Amino acid sequence: MKKDWIFKQLDLIAQKFNFKLTDSINKIPEEAIQMILYGGNESLEVNSKDLGVKRKYKIDFEGIANFIDQTFTNNDSTSLQRWAKEFMDHIDCPSCEGARLRKESLYFKVNEMNIAQLANMDIAELVEWFDGLGSTLSRKQEQIATELLKEIRVRLQFLLDVGLDYLSLNRSAKSLSGGEAQRIRLATQIGSQLVGVLYILDEPSIGLHQRDNEKLINSLESLRDTGNSVVVVEHDKDMIERADYVIDIGPRAGKYGGGEIISKGTPAEILKHDTLTAQYLNGKLEIEVPKVRRKGNGEKISLKGCTGNNLKNVSIDLPLGKMIVVTGVSGSGKSTMINETLYPIMNAHFFNGVKIPKPYKSIKNLDAVDKVIDINQSPIGRTPRSNPATYTKTFDEIRSLFAKTPEALIRGYKPGRFSFNVLGGRCETCKGGGLRVIEMNFLPDVYVTCETCQGKRFNRETLEIRYKGKSISDVLNMTINEATDFFEPIPKIYRKLKTIKDVGLGYITLGQQSTTLSGGEAQRIKLASELSKRDTGNTFYILDEPTTGLHFEDIRVLLLVLNKLVEKGNTVLIIEHNMDVIKIADHIIDVGPEGGRGGGEILATGTPEKVAKHKTSHTARFLKKELGM
Ligand code: ADP
Ligand code: ZN
Fold first, then answer.
1. Angle, nearest 10°, between helix axes 210-225 and 139-161?
2. Which listed ligand is nearest to 463 at the C-alpha?
3. What is the rounded CA–CA span in Å between residue 367 and residue 82?
4. Do domains 173-281 and 300-379+534-627 have the same CATH topology?
């Protein structure tokens, strides 16, 4: 058994309360569990086995819960905080029950409602409430409130216009997705009635269902019409088609032929060129609808009675061996059902995950798959030291290769010599970071290139070792595309690089700091790393909006990769709004009909052809067009 300090303390607690550390938890007395979780100070006397005398010990234990709490609040290190967060959950404050205000403040009411109740309504509901308010006011009250009510109504309307009817006013800013926060800022701007402003938006369509996207485009047009200019960086087809002026940059990505303006003009003028964008816009290139939908392996996982957030006691079947797409307008409940209910359940089952799932009644047949893998958009590493090469373990192979070169053998350099993380081969001035931090008083830190190694990260002797003329630093500066060609003769390395290229990331460099990768890029690195592992052929993959930030051509390539996973027998579940993904699904789960309170139901399930026939679903409306029905 482990013998560190914490375990000694636990051992003493066990002796004091007469249980063994191997006992199951329901045999341990409540008092002891309290002490393990929340700590305590006690002395106790123990019969020492060998000497036959009593010895005094002191329990001086902080408690596991306190330790986690302290780690979370008193730490600057995000990795420790993240560790602590895995064990934490949000619950309502028992005193105000989540209302945030003291009893006295809640005593004041307008038309039977206090301010916390209003802030808790979703915006659609709140608008209705204000609409109904007028008739209940006395003449005098009306006089006082007229201006206020007008202001409130206008502002709420802006939020409706950008498709945020499902949010409540008290939602904490932290719990909003990037897209939601962006649309709130947009609503504020529309509300400000400024003219002559240049607005710049980066991919505002992320996370938006086609229906919400239309609302967004309308709001942007109304900003333009009040006398402003709007610049949008975007891949979305509808957005491009409704622009007044389009600038198409390419022709391809990264070092491989990017960085030029290949066409510009009205959407109609863009179409005359033969760029990738034009070819997708005019339908010359398209992601094909599969002729047949896969039958799956006949097994399914059944999740019943989900009631988290807005979910209205919904049950779903997940047919295995298929590509499943969960879709629905923003706020309909997709993330609640998949990321907050299904995934924590599966993660607990297969990997002892500790996140508490949102409430549900039952789940059946989990063992029909071998494991679950969540390929999300969180960063692949917390420090600038991790990069695509280290994350995918390609760098291990490359270091071994360098250690096998004749010169390295003569000098006795081992693979560790080529690591920038340990003493030996790295530049000691920057400790292998290639950068030096200059701490500025009262200002954010400044990073400058290390003057000793000129950013090469290794010392001179290490850089003298070359493989096919390239030093280890040269290799880190190669793009994945370049490296794939360079390492073609070395199957172990080539195979890993090729998968990164296959997920559309050929343009990033092997040594690019992972902190500079976008969420979508990080997600695709994870996907690549999963792909290059030997899969069990029976894994359940979950991906949340993998098309984020991808151009049509990248989406096509990504779908090839995901399809390959399913062909091997795995199940791939994707949360997605992109029609090109939805239309190639084997099985769709459409959540809706609206966001928030008006959502949380399963509208339709089945093949795209079947779901498209649904009478009221927003997804069905767009899907029909896509399938040419
Ligand atoms: P989707 O993934 O379909 O966009 P979500 O599952 O994120 O939808 O949201 C479903 C509903 O639950 C929405 O009304 C949303 O506002 C609400 N919701 C989501 N997260 C939280 C949260 N942390 N606190 C309160 N309500 C939430
Ligand atoms: Zn250096």
1. 110
2. 2
3. 29
4. yes
Q: Which tens digits make up the pLDDT trace of 189-215?
A: 877 778 888 988 888 877 778 888 888
pLDDT band with cut points at 50, 70 and 90 for residue 250: confident
- Residue in the block written with tokens 């994945």: 480
Right CATH for 173-281 from 3.40.50.150, 3.40.50.2300, 2.60.120.260, 3.40.50.300: 3.40.50.300
- H or E element in which residue 437 lies: strand 435-438
Question: 231, 198 in Cβ contact below 8 A?
Answer: yes
Q: What is the mean pLDDT of the chain?
A: 87
Gap from CA of 91 to ligand 1 centroid (Å): 16
- Judged against a pLDDT cut of 60, whether residue 216 lies above it is answered with yes
> What confidence category does residue 255 fall into, taking pLDDT thresholds of 50, 70 and 90?
low
Instruction: Locate the ligand 1 atom nearest the alpha carbon of residue 207 and give its number.
Output: 4
Angle, helices 210-225/618-627, rounded to nearest 10 degrees: 90
Ligand 1 atom nearest residue 340's Cα? 6
Q: Within 10 A of 460 (CB to CB), how many other CB atoms are there?
A: 10
CA distance 359 to 429: 53
Among 453, 433, 437, which residue's Cα sits nearest to residue 445? Answer: 437
Contact yes or no for 9/2 (Cβ under 8 A): no
Identify the CATH number of the domain defined by range 388-515.
1.20.1580.10
- pTM, entire model: 0.74
Confidence (pLDDT) at 3: 62
